[in-house]
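Researcher: Checking consistency across runs. Here is Imidazoleglycerol-phosphate dehydratase again:
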Amino acid sequence: MRQATITRNTKETQITASLTLDDRADGVVVHTGIGFFDHMLTAFAVHAGLSLHLECKGDLEVDCHHTIEDTGIVLGQTIAAALGGRGGIMRYGSFFVPMDEALASAHVDISGRPFLSFRASFTAPMIGAMDTQMIEEFFRAVAAHSGMTLHLEVLYGENDHHKAEALFKAFGHALAVAVTRNRDGATLSTKGVL
């Protein structure tokens, strides 16, 4: 079973994440102290079809920045550790998610080459206690620390909650496709390695 647990402690955040790619039996339990962020991480994990337990204690008296970015770092590291050598997976995944008036897409390449293309804008500075500019920073940290190329886009939408949630759900579905085991266990690369 592909699973991993990562703990990261700094002067700003203390985070532990446990992730299982192949089984959702352990469910999803997320506590970061930021309600909307917990909602987004839960939506991601449920739509990715994985188990995720994540606890974060961050310096929220400062603001939400360290908690959200560091959670992205740990989630990226946990995904990378659970995948191991990355061989035998579909590697690529793409998905579109409509959420009421909003439409978002996510495209993943688990290539070992971290890159983020983020095309989304938000009208409000905050959704609940989550700074909307931190959505991009979270995904940048996930991409960098998981070693994936990640393209995210909100094609259109009006409601910031809907736009953000469509992004997180699309990412979950795209990741689920990319980590699916392929038929013959081959590494999908002309180089022979990822």
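Researcher: Does this match what you'd expect to see?
Model: One thing to look at in this run: The two ends are 20 Å apart (CA to CA).
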